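During the reporting period the student researcher (J.K.) took over the structure-prediction task from the postdoctoral fellow and processed the backlog of single-chain submissions. One of the processed entries is reproduced below for the supervisory committee.
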Amino acid sequence: MDTLPATAPTLRQLGPADAARYRALRLAGLRAFPHAFRPSYDEAVLQPLSWAEGRLNKAGEYWFGAFDGIELVGAICLRTQEGQKNRHSASLNALVVDPGRQRQGIASALVACLIGFARSLGHVRQITLTVIDGNAAAIGLYERFGFRQFGLEPDAFLHDGQYYAKQHRQLFLVTPSS
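J.K. obtained the following structure tokens:
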């Protein structure tokens, strides 16, 4: 279980001005946990800073960061959908915590922040996510927040010649309709 650091990180929304810090954090996460993320480190390191700036400024995506002073130690994204038929559903994406700051409550704080923000939008009824099957730490985190598995995609992810299944999980922010 996560333990809180001596001083809790400051959480705030990220924007293009945070791109360099975000890019560095993302690359550190990809290098330390290559089995947990879709892109490879080798692919991501070739993406210019402008790619990260664009990602943090994309319409419909709300990025949040956890800061220890000026250091970005964690990030997460809520991706919303457009259109009357889909706007009720959003997804949790790209959760990353500095490899040296694991198990300090940062991921929990970011997930709680994201869920609170999704509720504040007023129209989001559910949040979905995917997680590599067998990633016990991430699965435990999501289960503590009420995300329940609704599907399993076999051979969804290839890493070092091995295929991994991907769990699809969902959290209802309101009681689902029949």
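The committee noted the following: DSSP finds five helices and seven strands in the chain.
J.K. will present the remaining backlog at the next meeting.
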